[in-house]
Amino acid sequence: MFTFFRLLRIVFVALRYRLDELVLSGIKHPLAYSLLRVVRFGRAPRTPRGVRLRLALESLGPIFVKFGQVLSTRRDLIPLDIALELALLQDRVPPFPSEQAADCIEAALGASPHTLFKHFETDPVASASIAQVHFAVLHDGREVAVKVLRPGMRDIIEKDLALLAVLARLVERLAADGRRLKPRQVVAEFDNYLHDELDLIREASNCSQLRRNFSAEHGREHLLMVPEVVWEFCATTVFTMERMYGIPVSRIDELKAAGIDTHELGRRGVEIFFMQVFSDGFFHADMHPGNIFVSDRPETLGRYIALDFGIVGSLSEFDKNYLAQNFLAFFRRDYHRVAQLHIESGWVPATTREEELEGAVRAVCEPYFDRPLSEISLGQVLLRLFQTSRRFNVEIQPQLVLLQKTLLNVEGMGRELDPGLDLWKTAKPYLENWMRERVGLAGLRKQLDKEAAQWSQLLPQIPRLVHAHLSKPVVPHELNSQMERLLRTQEHTNRVLMALCAILAVGIGVAIWALTRI
Fold first, then answer.
1. In CA terms, which of 82, 174, 289, 372 is 20 to 30 Å from 415?
2. Quick one: average pLDDT of 1-15?
3. 131 and 40 inside one domain
4. What is the mean pLDDT of residues 240-247?
């Protein structure tokens, strides 16, 4: 019954915001044109399609808002005007009652929050579509933030995801670009994101990993502050972390009033991003201004603070190498190398002509060099490369799309802090140094150090393994097996022949006996 009424509400909202016109306008069929004229009542909607879609998702509730946010990152699949409008979606969600939050904490941790904590603020400090946050104080005096999952979220999500899957199948069948836009894959990707965010233990683990990457052990504690996880007060529905104090990175005037150098802050933000991507292969993938603060405490003044670790990205060594070489080739205008990298990666069919792909890449990249370097967007370059690759039947990897979305966030944040920020000047030396460390003597030494522990176990075994190998019969095992099968077959054949001979001998004997009796 819930599903039926939910579906009715979706249909009502779709009609209210004229999403029917949005769908029908994408279907190239005479019947669709006829229906389009009927639903338009002789006139087209006055509000742009992206705005109408955003308003519809906001009215349908937090799950659809979250879906719009994820969809806005897929600029390689959806039109740019819709992606830009969906990027404006915010989690304007009213908090759920504090009594329910207390019940959730008690169910997850086994005791009331007023028992677990010395002080627990009943009024939430923040409320989003998936969870809300309360401040608290531990009995040892430490100040913490307690993130509590919304009650009943899993059931609501499962039902709404089922409806989204149905809508995705309809779009794929009816819309002209349905298959290219891959709506079912987008919904599946959204499903993964949501279920990751529903498990707050997973988010706590992401937080802990990022904190370790920027610890004093790695010499990076001056760049980024990440809250400490309080594991004894964590569960799948509750995440307790160190409380952080700072100014949202988007409040430029407050940052300047606190004596923070915003130009240096912008440059350092780009450095932190590239460090996460190329050094660690593990990056915070939701770096919008609401999740990034700057410390205003005297002892840590000007350091970035990262929050909300529900979405992170991971890159393999292959991905990092591919990206670094692509960026460096672009810096040097070596479009032939960019084309080679696309083919070598295996994402372009091996039959693709390098010259044809090189020309397409040149058409994408060359116009950017007519602009001042401070106006060039690495994120937009990566996006255009993805769009060009689509012409050559390339399947863009999800982790690279997530990276491109995060890079756009970092660029926007950096240039808001410093309008003249030159990302090329910041990124190029870092990438060149990373490549030197990877392919030069330093990279070889690093790999030898990394493999030394494994080699120390294998080297003493080599003489025994060599002796065991040389002691084996010269005939390979596979040939031995074949010969054994052949011998068994021959023995079976011999037994059959002997039986036939015996039968034949008996038959001849009977015939001779019969003839002698005549």
1. 82
2. 73
3. no
4. 96
User: CB 500: neighbour CB atoms within 10 A?
Assistant: 10
Q: What is the pLDDT of residue 52?
A: 87
6 within some domain: yes
At 491 the pLDDT is 73
Count the domains in the chain.
Answer: 3
Q: Tell me how crowded residue 135 is: count the other CB atoms within 10 A of its CB.
A: 17
pLDDT at 126 over 70: yes
CA distances from 470 to 92, 457, 461, 462, 483 (A): 72, 21, 14, 12, 21
What separation in angstroms does the CA of 95 have from each of 15, 56, 61, 127, 132?
A: 29, 21, 13, 5, 7
At CA 244, angle to CA 238 and CA 245, rounded to 5? Answer: 145
Residues 133 and 195 in one domain: yes
Q: Long-range contacts made by residues 447-454, C-beta under 8 angstroms, separation at least 24?
A: none
| 175/181 Cα distance (integer angstroms) | 9
Q: Which residues span the domain enclosing 188?
A: 93-243
Please indicate, yes or no, whether residues 80 and 126 belong to a single structural domain of this protein. no
Domain finish residue from 91, 124, 139: 91
Label the pairing between strands 224-225 and 304-306.
Answer: parallel
Segment of 213-217, 324-328, 370-374 carrying the highest mean pLDDT? 213-217
Which candidate, 102, 93, 100, 91, places its Cα nearest to that of 136? 102
Q: Could you tell me if residue 392 is inside a domain?
A: yes
Question: pLDDT by residue (tens digit) across 11-37?
Answer: 788 778 877 666 555 555 555 455 555
Residues 6+ apart with CB under 8 A from 426: 267, 270, 271, 274
Say yes or no: 239 and 99 in one domain. yes
457 in a structural domain: no
Same domain for 75 and 148, yes or no, is: no
Domain boundary among 91, 110, 134: 91
Give yes or no: residues 47 and 115 share one domain.
Answer: no
User: Which pLDDT score is estimated for 73?
Assistant: 62
Active site positions, annotated: 286
User: Same domain, yes or no, for 346 and 434?
Assistant: yes
At 75 the pLDDT is 61
User: Do residues 71 and 172 both lie within one domain?
Assistant: no
Question: What integer is the mean pLDDT of 79-108?
Answer: 83
CA distance 517 to 178: 91
pLDDT by residue (tens digit) across 436-460? 777 666 666 766 676 666 666 676 7
Query: Which residue type, as a one-letter code, is found at position 108?
Result: A
- Ranked by mean pLDDT, which of 110-114, 412-416, 443-447 comes out on top? 110-114
The pLDDT score that the predictor gives to residue 392 is 74
